[in-house]
Amino acid sequence: MFGNNKRNGNGVAVAAITTLIAEGTTIRGDVEFTGGLHLDGRIEGAISADGADAVLTLSDKGRVMGEIRASNAVINGMVQGDIVVAERLELAAGARIEGNVYYKVLEMAAGAQINGKMVYQPDADVPRQLPRPDLAGAEA
Fold first, then answer.
1. pTM (2 decimals)?
2. Is the separation of the CB atoms in 119 and 100 below 8 Å?
């Protein structure tokens, strides 16, 4: 899956966790991490991972209100914002996404929900700026 990671009983990859944000914790602001971030709490801001081996794991209790950018991600909670994954994105059955999903490799379980576009990105270099929808009648 993600290198030598193991799978739990639900088939979801388990990465080496270097950072844990526990249930009941709310962070307001952007979060940058390396290694593995396991999120049971809530982040109101953007999440950005550094490194090709970085993995974000969002549990069924976790919530993100902002954009996610990572090399690899396992989502089983709620995200209100775009998700940009350079390598592998795994959407578990409890994933609820309100935003666009940019991915290279996608695994999606039955029950996962996406309200937005799914965009295949064949190159590992994901654009830093996401395309924004054109506003009808807007002057340039």
1. 0.79
2. yes
